[in-house]
Amino acid sequence: MIKATRGFSLIELMVTLVVLAVLVSMAMPMLDVLDKRRVIGAAEAVYSEFQFAKSEAIKQSRDIRVEVIDGNEWCVGVTDKDSCICTTTNPQDNNACTVAVYDVAEDEAIDVLRTVRAEEHTGVSVLDDTGFPVEFDSLRGMLNGVGNTVELQSEDGVRLDVVVSRMGRIRLCGQNEPVGGYPQCD
User: Fold this and answer.
1) In whole angstroms, what is the distance from residue 43 CA to residue 178 CA?
2) Looking at beta carbons, which pairs linking 155-158 to residues 24 or more positions away fall under 8 Å?
3) Neighbouring-strand partners of residue 49
4) Across all residues in the chain, what is the average pLDDT?
5) 154, 159, 164, 166 alpha-carbon torsion, rounded to 10°
6) Distance from the CA of 80 to the CA of which of 3, 21, 42, 100 falls in 20 to 30 A?
7) How far apart, in whole angstroms, are the C-alpha atoms of residue 106 and residue 102?
8) Own/partner long-range contacts of 160-163 (Cβ < 8 Å, ≥24 apart)
């Protein structure tokens, strides 16, 4: 009678560990790419809101503001009012970050909610909101005041800045290195 053995031999265990180590080492660069993509996605969304604010200021011939709240629960909001709270999600709320946009189908201006929030971009935080809100003027889309920067960072330290110059130029750049095709900040 042959006795059945149970368990793994040392050789089988070692081969399994080597295969697992190879798979993990292959997956690590992919995690870095995902981390960069999170920051790039958030920065491009913030960049888009700044571009919208600038173009609407010129198009509507009135000043448009961009509000920023920093931290892990960050948000960015665009408004044509004196102020707004970008965490507000109901466009009918008086504190919501809305911009009156002309609706051709309705033949009237409607308030459109314009925000980007942390919950839409997990794993990304805004480091500093000093100097916000900023306001684009209605004549040339320049800032009323000095330029400013929104600093976005991933959990692993990948950082991408949205820089707005006094002249109204909006650009993306990597703080410590080029990130995803965007140059390093100068």
Assistant:
1) 14
2) 155/35, 155/123, 155/124, 156/32, 156/35, 158/35, 158/36, 158/39
3) none
4) 89
5) 130
6) 42
7) 8
8) 160/39, 160/40, 160/42, 160/43, 161/43, 161/185, 162/43, 162/46, 162/47, 162/50
Token pair 């995803």 is found at 180
Contact 71/126 with Cβ under 8 angstroms?
yes
Domains and their CATH numbers in the chain? 10-174 (3.55.40.10)
* Cβ(171)–Cβ(150) below 8 Å: no
Digit-coded pLDDT (tens) for 94-144:
999 999 998 888 889 899 999 999 999 999 999 976 778 899 999 899 999
Contact 118, 53 (CB under 8 A): no
Name beta bridge partners: 154: 124
pLDDT band at 45 (very low <50, low <70, confident <90, very high): very high
Phi and psi, residue 175, nearest 5° = -65, -50
- pLDDT tens track for 171-180: 999 988 899 8
